[in-house]
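Predict the assembly for these two chains.
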Amino acid sequence: MIPAPFTYQRAGSVDEALSLAAEGGDDAKFLAGGHSLLPLMKLRLAVPEVLIDIGRLSELSYVREENGHIAVGALTTHHDVASSGLVGSELPLLAHAAGQVGDPQIRHRGTLGGSLVHSDPAGDLPAVILVLDATLVARGPAGRREIPAGEFFEGLFETALEPGELLTEIRIPRPAQAGWSFQKFTKRAIDWAIVGAAVQGDQVALVHMGSTPLRASAVEQALAGGAAPADAAAHAAEGTSPPEDINADREYREHLARVLVARGLAEARSRA
Amino acid sequence: MTVNGRTVDADVPDRTLLVHFLREVAGLTATNVGCDTTSCGACTVLLDGQSVKSCTVLAAQADGHQVTTVEGLANGDGEMHPVQRAFHLEHGLQCGFCTPGMVMATVSLLAENPRPTEEEVRTGLEGNLCRCTGYHNIVRAVLAAAEGGDI
């Protein structure tokens, strides 16, 4: 399969990327690692007329410590996130989850920013970013702005980014509680999660239990009220609206959420 | 781009995938198109030394970069690369369709982790499928290549 015809443009800087996007309007899309976009284009599920390749903007590939946060450039590949010593020591949940995305070849190309702006509810990293209370930094025609992770994911493949805006950085505060766990339930090695759970301390987020990643608020409230982890996990499906597909119906996903959150909380406590 | 140390220069349509560029423009047909959906790994090549699935990379994205295919592994005298030799000696193939991708994924895996455990080999090759299900000998070949060192 070959994508439908498009015009390829290469940006040499963030400013050039933004001006190319402004010129291209609704017909243009940014291309980072291309591991979400190119498969969709081959299936004709996405048919942009202009692709703006930002993959060479090395200034957007970094991991560094800044004012008590960890700042990750949007174009940092999953491989580089997973193998970063700084992420490994300060944000082991993110390092581990980045190392679980797809397979090694996919992790060599796919980027953290690309995975977030794709906003697939079955994606692992949106839930991880959500549970870590990250802030997303975007640049666009109107300048730079910061978007809390809780306001970033708006729906299936939809984010708070405006047309022509580019995600440039993900800022993650040091977690207040150390224990973490990432639970991903799949049928085969490189499948998307049927359901997943990201746990950091007493904070819990769910993968594929709605049209966006979700915080398991009822679980978090139960834990805050002193409930035992196993009892709190029983609330994992509350407030969710899981999809039904060939892999699982609603009841099965709700069951998986309760089981995975229970395992996740237990593992996180064992690491605390 | 530079393919196996040789400059390959051509004007191609913007939508040309790297795997088609390698097969049809560079004339290097060892890299196979398998699933064409980023799943099977038959099209795995090295891009600047890292394994990638060339069905999911545009040729334009590899422009100016170094690409290595399985044809580029043997040395000038035709002596097999240690990973190729290990696949040969351990019979790490059946029909052979997945083999170029398996070998390239292995070269990348061992560059990142020169002495993997068996489990690390199995997870390290999770992006490569063998429809003959010949995984045992493939894993044995990778471990033998790691054992031999000099990768």
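Chain B touches chain A at residues 13-17, 20, 36-39, 41, 44, 47, 50-53, 56-58, 60-61, 105, 108-109, 123-124, 126-128 (CB under 8 Å). Chain B is about 35% helix and 10% strand.
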